[in-house]
Structure formats: structure tokens, C-alpha cells
Amino acid sequence: MSDSPFDAVLCDFDGVLRLWDPDGMTALDRELGVPAGTLASAAFRPGLLDQAVTGQISDDQWRELVTADLTVTCGPARAQGLVHAWSTLTGRVDKDVLELLADVRRRVPVVLVSNATTRLEADLAALGLADAFDAVINTARIGVAKPDRRVFEVAARSVGVDLRRCLFIDDTPGHVTAARETGLTGLHYRQIDQLRSTLTSLLA
Predict the structure, then answer these.
(1) How many structural domains compose the chain?
(2) How distant, in Å, are the alpha carbons of 1, 118, 202 from that of 7?
């Protein structure tokens, strides 16, 4: 029997493994001469974002709708410029987290679980992460998003593990709470040493 309490690790993407410049979108606003927050408010409008991360619309359709919203507020040229510049961003991989997860994979499966659009798979390939996980759960592909318990159930099932034997890592407290209520062990990720300590029993 394993000496670890976990038979699989389910890990969030953005905010844990992929990091974004917190000033990135605001910098684009400045470059295009629009008020700070213009791009973010259009891109992450709750109803629209929900459609994108549950696959009701594709990533391309999402960006087209964001462009349309921005056209009303700042004109077509700036709208297209903002969305084009935003679409070139891919974030950066936290290499320390990636190394930890690679080490963990020597013992148990690691599943990426992301509230993402249909662009996720392309981003993983662009970042060199296409083969970094035993399974990828993209909410846009399954039709429901965290904190819905079905996301955790699908993730555990993808590697044939009882969800009660899964560790779930996420930087969003509400997602961690939902995972715990579903029966998983949840870690609210804040920094690398905390993660390394939690994964001690799984590190080769």
C-alpha cells in the first residue's frame, strides 16, 4: 500500500503553473491610449467569460465578442489593436512548480484542471507543456466549470482514481472549498514552499 495519502494530483493552471504579469492588460490599455481596465472589463465580463470557459462559445468567438464590446467604447481600430495584442500573450511557466509536478508524476498521475477556453490546448503546446500531464481537463470541453463538483469527478475518473484520494491545488479559495466539499483534499496555493511541503510524500 502507498505511504502517501494521495493517488493523484489535480492541479490548476493559471495562478499556479502559468503566471501572468499583473500589469499586462493594463499596459496594453496604456499603449492603445484607453483608460486602465478597459480591456479586462470587456474580456472578463462574468456572463461572457462563463460562456467561454464552459464551451458555449469558442475562444475565437469570445475574442470577437470582446472586440465588438470594445468597439462601442473605444472605436474599431483601438478595439482590434487591443484584442490582437492581448491574443499574443501566453503568460510564463513557473519552472519550479513544473519541476515539482514532473517529480510527482514518477509516483502518481498529475491532471491539469483548468477553467479555460478552447484555446487551452494550443497554449499548452506553445508553452512546451503538451506532454506535461497524464490528463488535461479543460472545462470548455466538458461543459461545466469549477467550482462545479462534476469537474472534480471527471478529473479523478480520467486517471481512474477515487476522488477521495486526490489532492487538488488551486489559487482560488472558492474552488478549493468546493473540492473539499466534494471529498478531495484541497490546497489553496499561495507559494512554492507550501506546495513542496504538501507534496513531500510524493517527491521521489
Answers:
(1) 2
(2) 11, 28, 9
- The cell for 60 is 475565437
pLDDT tens figures, 75-118: 999 999 999 999 999 899 999 999 999 999 999 999 999 999 99
0.90 surpassed by pTM = yes
**Using CA atoms, how far apart are residues 16 and 13, in angstroms rounded to an integer?**
6
176 within domain boundaries = yes
Whether 3 is in a domain gets the answer no
* 105 and 162 belong to one structural domain: yes
Contacts 24+ apart (CB under 8 A), 144-151: 144/54, 145/50, 145/53, 145/54, 145/115, 146/113, 146/115, 146/170, 146/172, 146/175, 146/178, 147/174, 147/175, 147/177, 147/178, 147/179, 148/178, 149/178, 149/181, 149/182, 151/113
Can you read off the three cell numbers belonging to residue 125? 503546446
**Residues pairing with 113 in the sheet:** 137
* In-domain check, residue 74: yes
Distance CA 190, CA 121 (A): 25
Give residue 80's domain range.
Answer: 24-87
Task: Judge whether 66 lies within some domain.
Answer: yes
**Three-state DSSP class for residue 172:** coil
53 in the same domain as 15 = no
